[in-house]
Amino acid sequence: MAHGADSFAAGRFDTGFPGPYHARAMGNLLLDRRTPSELAARAQVIEFKDVLALFPRLTEIVRTDLDGLAAGNRPVDWRAAEVTGRLEFGFADAQRALPALTGTVRTTLDAVCQRCLAPMRLPVAVELGLLFADGETTAAEPGEFEVWELDEPLFRPVDLVEECLIMALPFAAVHEERAGCREPRPAGADPLTVRPFADLRSQMEEKN
User: Fold this and answer.
1) In this structure, is the dihedral angle defined by the CA atoms of residues 175, 177, 181 and 184, taken in order, positive or negative?
2) What is the pLDDT of residues 25-78, one digit of tens each?
3) DSSP of 81-150, one letter per residue?
4) Phi-psi label, residue 103: left if phi above 0, alpha if psi -120 to 50, beta otherwise
């Protein structure tokens, strides 16, 4: 799955429905394969509270980062980190031709501070504003969205959420305040050149 960097001027969601279509109690709509148009036509709303283990690529990135810690410092339950969010599908134009997605996704991951090499908690938050493109969308069309191009007509929301979270990872995770660093960094190490998440993202993209 790839996305473009184009963005559009302000538009509106025009669902034509009296209310949103919420996720059913049974099952997980994040895992269903649908077209963006199907979800937009339903004005589908997906509110979710899952764990990191549901996202295998992100899980692998976190695992590789934590492998740098001594066994005694490695969090035991890091795969149980909560991933929460709300996804709202609709149309970005009155003609109902441009399916779009808005929403938020949040999590707090276990990571390694690149300043002190100690474990830390890393908040990650993503604000979504995506316009699904089929290769024919033009810059003249309305919408204040980032264009997201799908490789196939059907997609799973879970894959989109995972990719957005991966892209939101910092180049180098560090404690927000130096006072939070518990150990001095080894001499000669430059935190500006150590960017494990960036390197891991590149590796994951090469595998796909």
Assistant:
1) positive
2) 457 899 999 999 999 999 999 999 999 999 999 999 999 999 988 888 899 999
3) -EEEEEEEEEESSTTS--EEEEEEEEEEEEEE-TTT--EEEEEEEEEEEEEEE-S---TTS--S-EEEE-
4) left
Bridge partner list, 133: 149
Q: What are the residues whose beta carbons fall under 8 Å from the beta carbon of 26, sequence distance 6 or more?
A: none
- Say yes or no to pLDDT of 95 above 80: yes
**Rounded CA gap, 71 and 14, in Å?**
53
Q: How far apart are CA 140 and CA 158, in angstroms?
A: 30
Question: Are 25 and 158 contacting, i.e. CB atoms less than 8 angstroms apart?
Answer: no
Structural contact between residues 131 and 117, judged by C-beta atoms closer than 8 angstroms: no
Angle between helices 56-66 and 196-207 (to 10 degrees): 140
pLDDT in tens, 108-139: 999 999 888 889 999 999 999 999 986 555 44
70: Cβ–Cβ under 8 A, 6 or more apart, which residues?
none
Task: Work out whether strand 99-112 and strand 146-149 pair parallel, antiparallel, or are unpaired.
Answer: unpaired
The tokens describing 23, both together, are 């996720």
